[in-house]
Amino acid sequence: MLMRSVGTIREIWRYPVSSIGGEVLEAAEVGSAGMTGDRLYALVDVSNGIAAHPERDALAKGHLPPIAHHR
């Protein structure tokens, strides 16, 4: 099967905690469950169990007390 180039990877970013700043990697391991170490934890509103979404709410900005959950 002939494969053609469709682009170039310039940076690989991993976000260990969803909705928090990420880190640039030189290489990454990717499996059937996604990138190793990516989004292992999330900030969760303990009153309703919903994960933070920085564009949607203030939880990730520290206005509500978060807890960490492992997926």
Computed over alpha carbons, the radius of gyration is: 16 Å
Structural class by SSE content: mainly beta
- Give the distance, in angstroms, between the N- and C-terminal Cα atoms: 37 Å
Instruction: State the helical fraction.
Output: under 10%
Which blocks of ≥5 consecutive residues have pLDDT under 50?
none
Helix and strand pattern:
EEEEEEE
Describe the secondary-structure layout.
Layout: E1 12-14, E2 17-18, E3 23-25, E4 30-31, E5 34-35, E6 41-45, E7 66-70
Parallel strand pairs: 2-6
Antiparallel strand pairs: 1-3, 4-5, 6-7
Give a description of the structure:
The protein is 0% helix and 31% strand. The chain has 71 residues and is an all-beta fold. It has one domain. A hairpin with a 2-residue loop joins strand 4 and strand 5. The radius of gyration is 16 Å and the shape is elongated. The chain starts with 11 loop residues before the first strand and ends with a strand.
